[in-house]
Amino acid sequence: MTDIEKRLKYTFKNINYLEEALTHSSYVNGKHNSNERLEFLGDSVLSVVVAKYLFLLLDVPEGRLTKIRAKLVCEDTLYTFAKRIGLGEAIKLGRGEENTGGRERKSILADAFEAVIAAIYLDGGLESAEKFIMRFMPPAETVASDKLIIGDYKTSLQEVIQQNPEEHIEYAIVGEQGAAHRRTFIANVLLNGQVIGRGQGLSKKEAEQAAAKEALSLMGYETN
User: Fold this and answer.
1) For an engineered disulfide with 21, which of 34, 95, 119, 193 has Cβ 3.0 to 4.6 Å away?
2) Rounded to whole angstroms, how far apart are CA atoms 49 and 57?
3) Active-site option among 20, 111, 114, 208
4) CB-side neighbour CA atoms (13 Å) of 8
5) Does the annotation mark 114 as catalytic?
6) Domain 153-223 adopts which CATH fold?
7) CA 112 to chain CA centroid, nearest Å
């Protein structure tokens, strides 16, 4: 079993599926296929599994189910899942992507996560793919609560704050560190001038999202 298989907690019968799932289009040459087709399939498998989970878990209207599913399968959420298993370390990238921080890029990691789902599905069937996906689903009591926030933390924080019209939030980049090609930004989010969260990321937007996520967590919301 390879190191990445250990992190996936799945052993492939046909390792070629995994190799393709971890191959970004920037790496492709005559000997390799990129993971784009697998990403397409994985997106559908993920949607079915999450829809089934929510349907059996929650007795709520279709609109509510759709909204929760959207949170669980969006790019921000999949990026978080991919980071949890160190998927970025295993992705094959072209030199240009490697040198510009592609191993941490949200879209690349989220797409690779969907491709891995497809690889497991093709190798071991829907049951194996579902078992893998369910490792990342929030606990039932969290999903059922109104405190679940996944994905676009800035928008969610804004929605929470807007419940009190007199409140005002703003973001400030307060630091930068690292080499030019792998710069890390540090952001604060302020409520009426007071810092309520801090975060960092490889872009200013990512740092602001991290700051908003911390603020929501400190306010008692479940973030993933």
Assistant:
1) 119
2) 12
3) 114
4) 29
5) yes
6) Double Stranded RNA Binding Domain (3.30.160)
7) 10
